[in-house]
Predict the 3D structure of the following.
Amino acid sequence: MPVVTEKTNPNVKKESKAPNSAENKKVVYNTKDLNLWYGEGHALKNINLAINENEVTAIIGPSGCGKSTYIKTLNRMVELVPSVKISGEILYRERNILDKSFKVEDLRTNVGMVFQKPNPFPKSIYENVAYGPKIHGIRDKKILDEIVEKSLRGAAIWDEVKDRLNQNAYGLSGGQQQRLCIARCLAIEPDVILMDEPTSALDPISTLKVEELVQELKEEFSIIIVTHNMQQAARISDKTAFFLNGEIIEFADTDKIFSTPSDKRTEDYITGRFG
Amino acid sequence: MKYVDSEQVHKKMGSRLLANNLAKTLFFMATLFGLVVLIVLIYRVLADGLGWINLDFLMNRLSTDPERAGIWGAITGTLWLMLVVAPVTMILGVGTAIYLEEYAAKGRISSFIKTNISNLAGVPSVVFGILGLTVFARALDLGSVVLAGGLTMALLVLPVVVVASQEAIRAVPQFLREASYGMGATKWQTIKNVVLPAALPGILTGVILALSRAIGETAPLVVIGIPALLIPVPDGIFDKFTILPVQIYYWTVDSALVAEYANLAAATIVILLIVLFAMNSIAILIRNKFQKRY
């Protein structure tokens, strides 16, 4: 990716940051012995991962390593696949989301998701952002107006669309559509935002905008981002998990992963020897 | 040695080109045949019927006197029939399609049901007429009224609506559903707010095509027992009625007795064709206008 090359050296960028005070941070997602099968295929193997709040956690790895499956398990979106089987525990704020009594609707109201390909509804920009609040029962036009403006500002797209809120979202460019999807996600006021390769369909400038946005959003939200792009993980994340063949090979501070990885396979991957 | 002998190729070239042209001619003739028949048919109908169409013909009640006979009763009957068929097929057809596509677990049972719905579309319409006669007209004791005819017709065209709606629902991209689920929407909220609006043009097209099939069907209603000569105009769904194709049928049958009945039948066919043409145009218009791009 040709995005802002001077930033691609992670050591330079991260130096200014104090070594993480992660010990004091609360854990938002705690995954324990997670296994997942698609039919006979064992897609996730004994995943153990503790994700802190108000951090950006990047998940990297080659295609088919299970990173997308993992992030979709965090909001149980993976259950849309008919033949899926899951064992283990995922504690979200100390409650097991894989428990049958846990309502997915409840979970997904707290955990928003931004998808790989921008997927706005074929409705107006306003209706796209108001969709979440509306399905959760907000009918008051004034409140909806405020939510829409706040969310669009939050996703750094307000100035671009404020004069055409009633136009169809399909008139926006790909990058704008993705930021609209982020706004739509902010409108349900989530606690965690899951991002599944949110920039893989975007051009470099749109990618940069989304990356800057992620940096701002982490003040308020916990962000888990799957990315194909190692430079992106290095630029924007605090922690990085490296997945390979359904296993976590290494999980550590991003600085460490990209400077002194402890596993040979991590090193091979980040130096571009495979993947 | 070369495998392709140019001398041989040259010798056979003539017959190959001949076969080529023959094939083209054959397919053209096939197309032409249908076209010519259609043109002759329309020409004859227009020649026989056009002179008989005027306001009186449209607005008069039925009569044995060809000079005074009109099709107002059949037009009203057709409208009443559609008022029964449209909502019943919409609710049952779209409901079935939603269930099969969105709720039913994909498996043997659901694919068995789907296959049978497609088979149902091929059942002769007379069979539906017998069903309507047995169940609606006799068992439920409705008699040969609009409601009985409408329910029979609704069952007849139901498979068309189910299949068209299923296809429309299936064509809604999965990523739109994911976006909705991802915000904590329930399945029903997702269907109501995302899937149905996106599938609506396809569903409406299917419904209109189904209705235009129902408008042209004769056999099931003849079986139910529509009177050959019905002078009163129906006022509601519990009245006896007749419809355009049935009127055409009886006039054609009776044209052996009164020659002018053939002209009345032709005039009615023209009206029916106009109605069908209008409905199909609306279906195409809806399909083109609301075609979604994702």
